[in-house]
Amino acid sequence: MVPFFGTIACYNFIKYGVEAEKYIIVANPYQKNIQIVSLLAAIIACYLSYYLAVDIWVGIMALVFLTVVYAIPVLPNARNLRSLGGLKIFIVALVWAGTTVILPALGSFVSLSWDIWVEAIQRFLFVLVLLVPFEIRDLKYDSLELKTIPQRFGVRNTKIFGVILVVIFYVVTFLKDDLNVTEVLVKAFLFFGLLILMFSFGKNQGKYFASFRVESIPIAWYIILVLSQ
């Protein structure tokens, strides 16, 4: 539950807090409601964190640090790590991989075995793939100073980069020591789905392509996994 409430607080802080004066003072009623929800989520996360083991605390602090430097200016020539377009998506993917793989493993008192690290790498690659459509979608809105991957290498090369990530994502599956047919089939289904995704969009996307179709892929993955078991 800590990652759940912590994610709400951190996501809203990054999404809305950095636009507020001193990250606290807001005038917009919409943002005030978000601020209240975020504060409650942060309080609940802090309370539940009291019961966590030390190694989980270390993992959380590392991810919180990445989240903070992602949103708050820490470098002399950049507003924050979020402003470093080429680095941004890798920071996001790293935090998501740590939150959805490493922390649950530590919380379940499971040793960080080889298979756990392989799964973390796959989750990192998976999030990178899902961020590609967002990077291309925002191409017409992003400042040229951001130097995002599509700005540097173009839409076509960015999509090729996404395809390469999809292939690596699936190939890494076979590096696991404890591998079963179900996982191979589920990730094969996901592999083809992600490939289709990479070839089904461009600079001009539909209104809900990224915000609905792309963001629903993790949910579809979960449903397929549950049905397969």
From TrEMBL:
It comes from the Bacteria. The chain crosses the membrane at residues 33-50, 56-75, 87-110, 116-136, 157-175, 181-201. Keywords: Membrane, Transmembrane, Transmembrane helix. This is Prenyltransferase. It comes from Maribacter litopenaei. The lineage of its organism: Bacteria, Pseudomonadati, Bacteroidota, Flavobacteriia, Flavobacteriales.
